[in-house]
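User: Sequence recovery, please. Input:
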């Protein structure tokens, strides 16, 4: 595990694109043999960004139901500085239980472990592993891997901050070739599956590019981002 972890850390540190960043979450999932790995970041201006392996249907459902406003993982981790086993968080409210059952129906496992990370100027991030396991098995997994996961969480966050600083240095929105291609495909009316196939990337990676473009364009949602990209002349259909 030690050598494989070192190689994973090297791949995070070497990431120069959002596709590299997304690939690092997939490599983490493979290394630890869990169902999902997600890095979720709220930057210093309150804008959100995420990369990971949650199903697109669950991400869409989470946003549509506005689960962010009552997610026990978000609220529980925001109030602490140490990692959280999801079993130790407060799931007692009816909305929280509804969200949990909804998550299970959309392919998430019953166990989770989230590492909160705080950066400069109010930046907050969560590095999360999700899996299906009995409580005692999951507790053993955390005991064996908790220290390494803390290191990984901070490496992911350090790389995310590098991306943010790089974007802050730009005076006008400038989308990468992949971001432009993703926006152009959506503007042409293609589904996310079709767009991902055209770009020879996974739908998870496509989502990373779409969210990054939305963030750079200051758009409220994907439709707004496409409209801004068109109106500014960044893409032509």
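Assistant: Recovered sequence (237 residues):
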């Amino acid at each position: 595990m030690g050598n494989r972890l070192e190689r994973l850390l090297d791949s995070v540190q070497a990431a120069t694109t959002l596709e590299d960043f997304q690939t690092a979450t997939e490599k983490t999932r493979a290394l630890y043999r869990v169902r999902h790995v997600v890095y979720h970041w709220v930057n210093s201006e309150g804008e959100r960004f995420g990369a990971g392996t949650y199903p697109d249907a669950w991400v869409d459902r989470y946003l549509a139901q506005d689960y962010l406003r009552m997610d026990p993982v978000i609220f529980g981790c925001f109030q602490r500085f140490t990692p959280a086993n999801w079993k130790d968080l407060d799931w007692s409210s009816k909305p929280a239980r509804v969200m949990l059952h909804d998550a299970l129906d959309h392919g998430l496992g019953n166990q989770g472990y989230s590492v909160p990370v705080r950066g400069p100027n109010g930046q907050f991030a969560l590095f999360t592993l999700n899996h299906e396991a009995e409580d005692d098995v999951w507790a053993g997994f955390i005991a064996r891997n908790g220290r390494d996961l803390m290191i990984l969480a901070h490496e992911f966050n350090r790389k995310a901050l590098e991306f943010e600083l790089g974007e802050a240095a730009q005076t006008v929105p400038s989308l990468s070739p992949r971001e432009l291609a993703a926006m152009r495909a959506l503007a042409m009316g293609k589904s996310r599956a079709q767009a991902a196939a055209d770009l020879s990337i996974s739908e998870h990676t496509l989502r990373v590019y779409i969210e990054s473009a939305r963030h750079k364009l200051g758009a409220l949602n994907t439709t707004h981002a496409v409209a801004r990209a068109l109106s500014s002349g960044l893409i032509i259909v």
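The chain has two domains: 2-168, 177-231.
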